[in-house]
Amino acid sequence: MTSPISSLEVKLETGSYGRTVIARLKPNEDLVESLEHLCVQYGIGRAVVRSAVGSLVDGHLASGTDASLITQVVKGPGVEIVGLFGEVAVGKADQREDASGTRATELTAILSGTDSQVFAGRVVRGMNLSFITVEVTLQEWLADGNVV
User: For the purposes of burial, counting CB atoms within 10 Å of the CB of 46, is it exposed (0-12), middle (13-18) or buried (19 or more)?
Assistant: First the structure.
């Protein structure tokens, strides 16, 4: 039996939501890199993905940790985005980086392949190109610096 998560393991960041960006990604644009570019273009350091619809050429999703990282390839073309969730993090003021020094954008997707099978995992940077279009809504996150 697993123990419940203790309150010491959970950290909550306080803040508020700011501007909303609604955009269309064109064919062959990478999902992660395009969302980061949008944030840079509009001066947004961090944003949450509110919604996304569209299709990818192929889907590449990761699961597991460094030692047991598995990448699932969802063959297309025409892999449908069922859901997209997570945070886009860019900018000097909030240059959140992981241990390898890369930006800490973290997106999770649910994808439906051309055979209607459904897959879920973390979106692999540089490997998820929009097929026809992807429409996405981002909302700016303005952290106030307090962690409770």
Answer: buried
Stretch 95-101: mean pLDDT: 47
How many C-beta atoms lie closer than 10 Å to residue 142's C-beta?
12
Domains parsed from the chain with CATH numbers = 14-142 (3.30.1330.80)
Contact assessment for residue 107 and residue 127, using Cβ atoms and an 8 Å cutoff: no
66 φ, ψ to 5°?
-50, -45
pTM for the full predicted model: 0.84
Task: Kindly state the DSSP code that residue 125 receives in the 8-state scheme.
Answer: T
What is the enclosing helix (H) or strand (E) of 36?
Answer: helix 31-41
Query: Which stretch of DSSP H or E encloses residue 142?
Result: strand 130-147
- CB distance 15 to 148 below 8 Å: no
pLDDT digits (tens, 9 = 90+) for 103-135: 589 999 999 999 999 999 999 999 999 999 999
